From TrEMBL:
<comment type="subunit">
    <text>Part of the small ribosomal subunit.</text>
</comment>
<dbReference type="GO" id="GO:0006412">
    <property type="term" value="P:translation"/>
</dbReference>
<keyword id="KW-0694">RNA-binding</keyword>
<dbReference type="InterPro" id="IPR027437">
    <property type="entry name" value="Rbsml_uS13_C"/>
</dbReference>
<dbReference type="GO" id="GO:0005739">
    <property type="term" value="C:mitochondrion"/>
</dbReference>
<comment type="similarity">
    <text>Belongs to the universal ribosomal protein uS13 family.</text>
</comment>
<dbReference type="GO" id="GO:0003735">
    <property type="term" value="F:structural constituent of ribosome"/>
</dbReference>
<dbReference type="InterPro" id="IPR010979">
    <property type="entry name" value="Ribosomal_uS13-like_H2TH"/>
</dbReference>
<dbReference type="GO" id="GO:0019843">
    <property type="term" value="F:rRNA binding"/>
</dbReference>
<keyword id="KW-0689">Ribosomal protein</keyword>
<comment type="function">
    <text>Located at the top of the head of the small subunit, it contacts several helices of the 18S rRNA.</text>
</comment>
<dbReference type="Pfam" id="PF00416">
    <property type="entry name" value="Ribosomal_S13"/>
</dbReference>
<keyword id="KW-0496">Mitochondrion</keyword>
<dbReference type="GO" id="GO:0015935">
    <property type="term" value="C:small ribosomal subunit"/>
</dbReference>
<keyword id="KW-0699">rRNA-binding</keyword>
<dbReference type="InterPro" id="IPR001892">
    <property type="entry name" value="Ribosomal_uS13"/>
</dbReference>
<keyword id="KW-0687">Ribonucleoprotein</keyword>
Length: 116
């Protein structure tokens, strides 16, 4: 098992697929990282050398916002919406759907939390 940016990568998966297990890296970014480092996306994680794993980790740390930094940023955005008391902030605060979804018959889980 290899750990990159706090995510455990399965050894017998391809590099481009295993990198998507890191929060904030999707298929497109995973292929881009492999291309920039000159690593084939089709080789398995267990076939990578320690140097290549360090290179991947270094590139992710420098160029991409991932894991805790990304989650912290999302949480800060939601806090900002709540503080300025905009519509989306109020819906976040009340734990209701934000984007115009119907709540009369749907969204039962979030309405159940409000009723109690």
């Amino acid at each position: 098992m290899s750990y990159i940016s706090g995510a455990r990568l399965v050894d017998n998966k391809q590099v481009r697929i295993a990198l998507t297990k890191i929060y904030g890296i999707g298929p497109k970014k995973a292929i881009q990282i492999c291309y920039r480092l000159g690593i084939s996306g089709n080789i398995k994680i267990k076939e990578l050398t320690k140097y290549q794993i360090d290179q991947i980790e270094q590139m992710i740390g420098q160029d991409h916002v991932v894991h805790w930094e990304l989650k912290r940023g999302e949480r800060a955005d939601i806090e900002r919406l709540i503080n300025i008391s905009c519509y989306r902030g109020i819906r976040h605060q009340d734990r209701l759907p934000l984007r115009g979804q119907r709540t009369h018959t749907n969204a039962r889980t979030c309405r159940k939390l409000i009723r109690k």
